[in-house]
From TrEMBL:
Residues 61-119 form the Cupin type-2 domain. It comes from the Bacteria. It holds the Pfam family Cupin_2. InterPro entries: Cupin_2 (IPR013096), QDO-like (IPR053146), RmlC-like_jellyroll (IPR014710), RmlC_Cupin_sf (IPR011051). This is Quercetin 2,3-dioxygenase.
Length: 185
């Protein structure tokens, strides 16, 4: 049985806010949100790690590209545990690359590098970690998306209203790039 805690983010969270307390969370029982066609589950975030890193999973079906975005102060890791993900990245000199990641593959995106991704197979899962100087962005998912108690994917994709994309930049170090073009897409 997983305990529930009240936090500043949620009335009921499975993640204790106290960073000095060890904890265990059963598979899938972290804080969940739906965003686009995906289920995001947060297992550790800023409250638990003194804003040094977060740990989350993204599960989704084959689908559309997640919009291009950049993090000014946060590095991001993509580790594929099932399925396949096409990772699009542009380095700080403007050189673009894309690569399909399959189970066991690891992708690293440094801060200030525009990136996007697309699930290439149904039932794809990514383990994500983000870290930077005093930043984590795990609460971005439920702020832009919608918190859920469901364990599965959304019945219908949850696409936020356009104005919400601009509202997450300062608070979560996520700046969307709506006009960004991937040359070899």
């Amino acid at each position: 049985m997983t305990m529930e805690f009240a936090t500043r983010y949620r009335a009921a969270s499975r993640i204790p806010a106290d960073p000095s307390k060890p904890y265990v969370i059963e598979k899938g029982e972290g804080d969940r949100a739906h965003l686009f066609g995906d289920l995001i589950t947060v297992y550790a975030g800023g409250e638990q790690t003194e804003n040094t890193f977060n740990f989350f999973t993204v599960e989704g079906p084959r689908g559309d590209i997640i919009p291009a975005h950049v993090h000014a102060d946060t590095h991001e890791v993509f580790y594929v545990t099932q399925g396949a993900v096409r990772l699009f990245v542009e380095d700080t000199e403007g050189e673009q690359s894309e690569r399909v990641l399959t189970p066991g593959d690891f992708g690293f995106v440094p801060k200030n590098c525009p990136h996007a991704y697309r699930m290439e197979r149904h039932h794809t899962q990514i383990v994500g970690v983000a870290a930077g100087p005093g930043h984590t962005f795990e609460r971005f998912f439920e702020t832009l998306g919608t918190p859920t108690e469901q364990l599965g994917l959304p019945a219908e994709p949850f696409v936020p209203e356009q104005h919400k994309f601009g509202s997450v930049r300062e608070q979560f170090d996520v700046r969307f790039l709506p006009d960004h073009q991937w040359r070899d897409r």
